[in-house]
Amino acid sequence: MKISGLNLILMGPPGAGKGTQSELIVSKYNIVHLSTGDMFREAYKNKTKTGLLAHEFTSKGQLVPDDVTIALVKERLLQDDCKNGYLLDGFPRTIEQAEALDEFTNSISSPISKVIALDADYNELVKRITSRRVCPVCGASYNLFTKRPLVEGVCDHCQSKLVQRDDDTEAKLHTRLEAYEKQTKPLLDYYAKKGLLVKVDGLQEIEKVFADIAGVLGE
Length: 219
Ligand code: AMP
Known about the structure:
Layout: E1 6-11, H1 18-29, E2 32-35, H2 36-45, H3 49-58, H4 66-77, E3 85-89, H5 95-107, E4 114-119, H6 122-130, E5 132-134, E6 141-143, H7 170-184, H8 186-193, E7 197-201, H9 206-217
Parallel strand pairs: 1-3, 1-4, 2-3, 4-7
Antiparallel strand pairs: 5-6
The structure holds adenosine monophosphate.
Adenosine monophosphate binds at residues 14, 36-37, 40, 57-58, 61-64, 69, 90-93, 97, 167, 176.
């Protein structure tokens, strides 16, 4: 099978705005949004074997083992809707995952087009994450400061009651940020060496961050 299209990776620490920017990117470029975090949450909701296993790690803010994560992503990338391009949000998060992704995309002759990395400082990330609220039904994401829902506590899209993700507490956030620093940050170098990396300041207004990303990707 050959997939050809705009194949993107969106990187950044938890709270850098990956979810929000992903929604804007996939809508403009008409590509599929693949969030491994969403996939794990969905699998856990459905009580699949992968979902239950992953929850042992996600509930502590730790990364799910590479073999489980890589298998999940490969299976998803082979589905038909990825043919015209996709945005990977939250994958890869380790060098092993990046190497597996390279091997896989080469084997189907459809390499990664660009890697966009959102930058943000530690204090801002803590503030953003602890004020994040999500819709448990449609997955939409909000922020009590920067992206408020129209009606407090209610999803704009499906009117469900918004909740806080159980790994968005300050205690678990610390573990997640540590995992990012130790395991994921080295990927910036990995992709810079391949000439694929573009850094964008994630602390700007949502619209400005998106304008910078669109400036890189073009029409
Ligand atoms: P996210 O929604 O991207 O913040 O992901 C939520 C949680 O899912 C993470 O804290 C990890 O436990 C797990 N997870 C998501 N993506 C990956 C990945 N690529 N590798 C390992 N664990 C992951």
